Amino acid sequence: MKKVAEDDPRRIVHSFKVGLAITLVSLFYYFDHLYVGFGSSAMWAVLTVIVVIEFSVGATLGKGLNRGLATFLAGTLGFGAHHLANLPGRELQPILLGIFVFILAATVSFIRFFPRMKVRYDYGLLIFMLTFCLISVSGYRDEEVLEMAHKRVSTILIGGFTAIFVCIFICPVWAGEDLHNLAANNLEKLASFLEGFGDEYFRKSSEPESNKASLQAYKSILNSKQSEESLVNFARWEPPHGPFRFRHPWKQYLKIGSLTRQCAYRIEALNGCLNSDVQASPETCRNFREAFIKASSETGKAVKGLASAMRTMTLPTGDCPQTAKSKNAADNLKSLLRTGLCEGIDIVEILEVATVASLLLDILACTEKISESIHELASLAHFKRLEPDEKDGNPDLDKQKQVWQSSNSIASNHHHHIITIE
Amino acid sequence: MKKVAEDDPRRIVHSFKVGLAITLVSLFYYFDHLYVGFGSSAMWAVLTVIVVIEFSVGATLGKGLNRGLATFLAGTLGFGAHHLANLPGRELQPILLGIFVFILAATVSFIRFFPRMKVRYDYGLLIFMLTFCLISVSGYRDEEVLEMAHKRVSTILIGGFTAIFVCIFICPVWAGEDLHNLAANNLEKLASFLEGFGDEYFRKSSEPESNKASLQAYKSILNSKQSEESLVNFARWEPPHGPFRFRHPWKQYLKIGSLTRQCAYRIEALNGCLNSDVQASPETCRNFREAFIKASSETGKAVKGLASAMRTMTLPTGDCPQTAKSKNAADNLKSLLRTGLCEGIDIVEILEVATVASLLLDILACTEKISESIHELASLAHFKRLEPDEKDGNPDLDKQKQVWQSSNSIASNHHHHIITIE
């Protein structure tokens, strides 16, 4: 229980929000002058709040709008069906109503299988079917169908608005923000793998398993598709908020996510090599080892830079120095591989190392594609652009520069460190 | 629209089933002597049918049982809360009711975040919250709370049973069967990749892209986790049906699925090599090429054997000949790699080929794990065991033997074919 709360403290707030919204809407029952208008239909408002209120604003809005619109449409249609069935007389009415209900229920159930409808309007279709059946069928007994339809629509609107109001104005949870952070987090997981991998691979037997956790973090990316898709779907219902303007390119996140997953699949394969029995011995040729660690960690840093650019929604104009460094390191590794670096080495070892190196190069190619798609996002979503030669004391720029400098100094330290060991 | 129906014709049947169930339950409104007992509460039965009926039996049962049990429990508790709030007098009643509702709603909303509860009882918790609020709150106005609670429980039971009845007895769709078939299909996709891959890799430029489709089929495995998990969850609600007995080991399918996905991740990485610019030239040493194609296609056949064993739920006792063949071929490839097969060959080419070969060997190791987990399933689920030396004219055995023989003859033809080309 503690873990559930610690994982995301917003869950506790959400629980209180649900309690508050239901208590608010149940006031209709307690105050006489509020109750008079609706009578026992007021329970539809309570029911709507409970069913509509969700964790994120987007999900609540999507459900609320679906429910409101579907109820209105189905109420109108049900009222029409009731009148149509009334025309031929009392005897035929149940038969006609039965036929209408059957046809509508079967059609709507089939439409719910359409992938596009399923994603965005599944709940609306369910409510459409439900309201139509309730209005047209119970209209057979209750003569005041119009009043019933009216009451149902208005109580549902009240419930829906209460849920949406509480959800938006009390500590809102934005699906768009969650999606944006998820994308940045996933990039950071890739980055920490790449930064740690070179060292891990060449020193496997000698060091304790301290940084294994950061090397395993990428595993959560493998199955992230579903949650990403639902977040995108929720985010598209949301109004502009924070740095996300109207028509923010949410679908671009799916592209970035899919490339990130492709990268993670390759890392998973690479990890298979790490866990296999044959390991490159620590003596495997020096040049190669240096090139390898450098390519991996420089790319890790470049990806980390992308992640922080995502997070702050600022992107340096032009090529960033880190990307150029990572490309250089990769080219270096490639040419070493091509020229058959270590002549005296055992063929078994070279085969193992070659596999790891090719996979790594494949991963680096993947990160380049990710970088492209993030630049695409940046131009679509109008990220802040930082001129590298700007010197007006812009605090954002200073911060950004500090990040670059510190990562550069780490890079050179790191490099130095390697040389020292050798 | 046509595509949705063609993909799975059971969808059309399902749509008619929904129409039928709703029409059945709405009979309560049309016949006077049925209507008398429930009055306008009869609409709860219609509502329950619409909300509970789902595509598969397991999903319907899960929702129906959740709804029934939650309504019963919450009805009892709501009745108790109503009485408790009545004790101090009319003035304090709304305040006490408000506090009860707030506490219960907040608690249940929080419990819904627990992963275990979310998977199996999410819907039940929602309905629990809903019914409690309805009974305790509307009890403030309606003095006959007990009767209302009783009506709500019984109409929901009627609706739930109608939905479950229609779902089970008219062309049932079993989630367990779907899960079993999904596992077998995924294995077949792996098998067709492995069978086609060797040829594809070594003849890339020369042949048309005819069998690309079978090489791409594995991609759907990559994101199969979510649908597998929900099918397992549904299947666990289902009664014994067809070959699946009581307490069928559904969770073992998750293990098989996770191993299948691991295999697919490696195939995705391997496919990255297929699409990269550097390709092994057709002249790459003969021995190696033969060993490579053989290892890949023999393993493909072994996996296909496993898939058909899954599908027919029969497993030959002892090691099947195909598995032994595939292991031999893999060992052969390994030893060729170890001894540094082709001395005269260009280093760039050998590096490329070595990468593909290591990945392939990793995939073969993965398929062995899959085979183990299927044998585990076979013993847990009491698959039929076929003695290889049985000669009593068992038709299943004959069929199975035919499969083995035909695959063997294809194998030898295939082998012959390769030699001819060379």
TrEMBL record, chains A, B:
Belongs to the aromatic acid exporter (TC 2.A.85) family. Residues 388-410 are annotated as: Disordered. Residues 388-401 have a biased composition (Basic and acidic residues). Keywords: Ion channel, Ion transport, Membrane, Transmembrane, Transmembrane helix, Transport. The chain crosses the membrane at residues 12-31, 43-62, 69-86, 92-111, 123-141, 153-175. InterPro entries: ALMT (IPR020966). GO terms for cellular component: membrane. It is found in: Membrane. It holds the Pfam family ALMT. GO terms for biological process: malate transport; monoatomic ion transmembrane transport. It comes from Gossypium tomentosum. This is Aluminum-activated malate transporter. Coiled coil: none annotated. It is a multi-pass membrane protein. The keyword Cell inner membrane does not apply.
